[in-house]
Amino acid sequence: MRDEPRPKSHDSAAGTLGAFQRRGEVIKPAELIEVRGGEKITLAARRIYNQLLSNAFGPNMAAEGQEYRIPFSELRGNHTSNDRVTEAILSLMQTVVRVRMSDGSTRNVHLLGPTDVEKFGPGIATMLTYELHPKLLPILRDSQIFARLEMQILHGFGTKYGMALYEIIAKRIGLRHVFYNDFETDELRDYLGVPHGKLGPFAALRRKAIEPAVAEVNALAPFSCRIDTIETQGRKVTKLRLSWWLKTVDEKKVQWEAQQGKQANLFVDQLPEVTLWEP
Q: What is the largest CA-CA distance in the chain?
């Protein structure tokens, strides 16, 4: 994949950790978006990891030994049990991904460090204390490019492929005069998190992963996208082109009406008109 120019809107003089994270938003370093080796991470684990990053975000995020706390109630969503959250946390602690560093080198790193679970009495767990893995801290410290992810949009995805594609585009949506990116087919397969040995034929990959991901992004995100075949070798599809563009006002209105009954407050309503009064 070719290196893109760094988007000015996503570049901070103080680095990624110097950016301002708004409420309901996730500032995610670009290095943690396009990773390889995360095919075992479930949709729930991806969503929870974004919540953990959002909760930990700040200028001290790369400080060694820093601990963060978050209530289980914020992680389990509409579920009453913590079982899925606990399973996701263990998966994130055990998963090693390959991250491309800013200097072009590759680092193998765990996504999450040690965790503690607090319980008040014999009942359900109430608080998670966690650390980011020490090998992850230099990546966070040196990161200069990031994506702004909307938490409510993340909660709307029903597939991990759709969430991964949303993050890939969100990393690039601030680029000026760049509206597409070419990927090797195996490269995009890894970035979407397709398990090894699954969806081998391209027809299966397109039907089970690519098309559902594109459909979800187009339904939920403030931008639209498409993925086209641009290179083949014999009968094998070897290169794909991901294109994206911002939705028009009319398209956003149609989108808002379609999502209104499915997920409340997915999109911010327009501010009411202000009447000026003069004495």
A: 77
Q: What is the pTM of this model?
A: 0.84
Residue 34 has which token pair? Answer: 């396009």
Distance, CA of 140 to CA of 28 (rounded, Å):
9
In the chain, % of residues over pLDDT 70: 85
Ordered by start, the domain boundaries in the chain are: 1-151, 156-264
The amino acid at residue 84 is R
Residue 261: is its pLDDT beyond 90? no
Whether the Cβ atoms of residue 72 and residue 126 lie closer than 8 Å to each other: yes
- Indicate the fold that domain 156-264 takes in CATH: Arc Repressor Mutant, subunit A (1.10.10)
**DSSP-H helix ranges across the chain:** 43-56, 72-76, 83-94, 137-142, 151-154, 160-170, 185-192, 202-205, 211-220, 249-259
